[in-house]
Amino acid sequence: MIPDPVVARERLRQHADEILAALQDGKQPPVWETEVVDLKEEAGRRDRSGDLLAAEPRNQAAVDKLAPELRCFSNSPGGGAIVLGVDDKTHDLIGTRLDVEWLRQRLHVATGVAPAIEERVVRGHRLLLLLIAESEVPLEDPDHRLRWRVGDQCRSVDRAEWWARRAERIGVDPTAAATDRRATDVSRGAIVVARALLAEAGDTGSADATDEELLTRLGVLRPDGSLSQAGVVLLCPSPRPGLELSQLDVVGGDVTSTFRPAAGSSVLEALREVEIRLDALNRVRPVNRGLVEEASRALPPRAVREAVLNGLTHRDWFRSEPTTVRWIDEDDTLVVTSPGGFTGGVTPGNALSTRHARYPALADLFQALRLVDRQGVGVPRMYQTMLAEGHRAPLLEEVPGPAVRTTLAGKPQVPVVARLLVSIEPAPRRRDVRVAVLIDALSRRPFLTSVQAAEVLQVSEAAADLALETVADCRVDGHPVFAHVRDAHVLSGELQALVASGRFGALPVRDERFWYRRSDSDTVAAVAALWLEVHDRVTSGDVATLTGMWQANASKHLTALAEAGNTVARGPGKGRAAHFQRVSR
């Protein structure tokens, strides 16, 4: 059985502290590096002559060097520990100045692993102890290799062996369990589709391998020759359809076409056919982007794929009904309904930021087939691609059954937001789901506090603050994206002016985006009411910044509202201290 995470971490800490104690006393431990502890010098600290350079709190070279070691330890039974700041050849103490929070965040971005990091001081040198927990799923290096710790080295391991060891240790995931099926029970069509997927992803080595070697690389053919339950679910002929597609003209209207897999076909074959049919339904249409008309799919193909894959990966496979996919022609909308409710603490309110796989071995098989890049990023990718093309965010909800329903709405589409997002600098931030979510939110509301940002990002307030700092560093045409009104974040005046000038195209007349950038009394009342929900007072300067109107006009509107007893009441202050408060009811 896998030990309690707290117990496992304490064991790692004890192993590391034994070596650190020897370093403190100037003694040699029985072994410097073990199967669970590795010593590392901070990469990027030496010049070409080998001389040591000054330490810095941020060093991307160190992250790049540590990332594969983290994956290796995370893949290993029991995890592992890295002592950073020690020459791994001479064992001389060098130290490190790396900022702990920065390092943890950068390692998490690079690997999906967020290690516990503790500071140690040994003979005046600051060291960092990285404690890496055992992963629930295998973590690939960028070249798609899996490695784990053997002795004091990281060695390659195939998926089948990894899952066999995992099943022995945990015995929980039913899709990792052995069955009485063999390689000859796999559908011929599934083998053809698997080879095609791997070839399309550039993995020709796996695509050209023998059937047995291919299934081993996918992690479904165990060392004893049996198939895992994940392999049976996805690759063997299915006694009942696991996936169905229907096309409707309107919601609740006529069904114009359907696809139901033929008897004896596998779920993977059905998935391939559904993707082909969705590609045809997801038609190319013209989109007006300012003075230019461009061709665009009704829905982002990547979001469509992620929605379907989520509906298969995370469904309850002990239920007999299929995952259903519906395409609504008139609305350019996709609706995927998968049997089984949310699990593992995931809810509609945190699905953007919370990762959980109902069946880790099955989720890993989708990754091994290159259908997904990395487990746990499907929902964030749906959000990012939908918002980046001017659509609404995906709607995820639990419905009676229970079942999880995911809706991607193609209409309305607002190219202004899409053009704004593709103008973000630095360019990598255009793919950052946090940037997309926050800018989309601020196109619909006048401001965000840290608490409100946490709600839309579905993260803690501390994590929201980090995201807000990230967006604050972004620019569009050299102008900042954010400005501040007291404790709130708003889109900067320069960016608002670019939107108003048509730099990103014209806003639809009836669209709710940037509704607050108007100068009428109703807008002032609505903006003031929102502000007073989270503040005890509002000033004409606040309203002027939030709406873009002159401060004198904002003052006139607020005064008129106060005199009419509408929304606000005049506060006791005068002159510079003048302000308005919420109307007492």
Describe the model.
The model has no long low-confidence stretch (mean pLDDT 86). Helix 9 (267-281) packs antiparallel against helix 10 (301-313) and helix 19 (540-547) crosses helix 20 (551-563). The protein has 585 residues and is of the alpha+beta class. Strands 8-7-11-12-14-13 form a six-stranded mixed sheet, with helices on one face. A four-stranded mixed sheet has the order 1-2-4-3. The protein is flat, with a radius of gyration of 28 Å. The chain has 20 helices and 21 strands.
* Largest sheet geometry: 6 strands, mixed
Trace the largest sheet across and list its strands. 8-7-11-12-14-13
Alpha-carbon distance between the termini? 61 Å
The overall pLDDT average reads: 86
Q: Which class do the helix and strand fractions yield?
A: alpha+beta
What is the CA-atom radius of gyration, in angstroms?
28 Å
Beta-sheet strand percentage? 15-25%
Total number of helical segments? 20
Helix content: 25-40%
Summarize the structure.
With 585 residues, the protein is an alpha+beta fold.
Record the SSE blueprint:
Layout: H1 5-25, E1 37-40, H2 60-75, E2 80-84, H3 100-111, E3 116-122, E4 125-132, E5 147-150, E6 153-156, H4 159-170, H5 188-200, H6 204-207, H7 211-217, H8 229-235, E7 243-248, E8 255-259, H9 267-281, E9 284-289, E10 292-297, H10 301-313, E11 323-328, E12 333-339, H11 360-368, H12 378-388, E13 395-399, E14 403-409, H13 415-421, E15 424-425, H14 433-444, H15 450-457, H16 461-472, E16 475-476, E17 479-480, E18 482-485, E19 488-491, H17 493-500, H18 521-534, H19 540-547, H20 551-563, E20 568-570, E21 580-582
Parallel strand pairs: 1-2, 7-11
Antiparallel strand pairs: 2-4, 3-4, 5-6, 7-8, 9-10, 11-12, 12-14, 13-14, 15-16, 16-17, 18-19, 20-21
Helix pairs in contact: 2-3, 5-9, 9-10, 10-12, 12-14, 15-16, 18-20, 19-20
